Amino acid sequence: MLKKIIYNLTLAALTSFIWWQLYSAQFLQYDLNFGQLISVFLISIVFTIVGIVLLVKKVQIVRANLVLSIAFLIVNSPVTIFLVVMHYHTIFGVQLDAG
């Protein structure tokens, strides 16, 4: 039970961190905002790889929360992050500073 709560809170914290970093990039200067977006993309790659490995290894806590795990992988996948960055203006309503 405690493992499940910790797993769920960890996924929620990671999702919040990734999306907060995406959102807050609009308030930074050109070099910093694109650096932050690149770092978020790299973080999403790492967590996607870790999530897929855990799913393939059939780790019990991941299997017990399969829907949540798959939703996490979809919401924080590198493809999703890439699409958000490419359509940043549409999603967040602001244009990133172009320098």
Architecture overview:
With 99 residues, the chain is mainly alpha-helical. Helix content is 80%, strand content 0%. The protein has helices at residues 2-24, 30-56, 60-64, 66-75, 78-86, 88-92. Helix 1 packs parallel to helix 4 (66-75) and helix 2 (30-56) runs antiparallel to helix 5. The radius of gyration is 15 Å and the shape is elongated. The mean pLDDT is 88.
List the helices and strands and how they pair.
Elements: H1 2-24, H2 30-56, H3 60-64, H4 66-75, H5 78-86, H6 88-92
Record keyword descriptors for this entry.
6 helices, mainly alpha, 80% helix, 99 residues, 0% strand
Short account of what is shown:
The chain has 6 helices and no strands. It is mainly α.
Instruction: Using the CA coordinates, give the radius of gyration.
Output: 15 Å
Measured between the Cα atoms of the first and last residue, the distance is 49 Å
SSE ordering: HHHHHH
Alpha-beta classification: mainly alpha
Low-confidence stretches: none
Strand-residue proportion: under 5%
How many separate helices?
6
Oligomer: single chain
Main sheet overview: none
What overall geometry do the principal axes of the alpha carbons give?
A: elongated
Can you count the beta strands? 0
Instruction: Determine the mean pLDDT.
Output: 88
Helix percentage range = over 70%
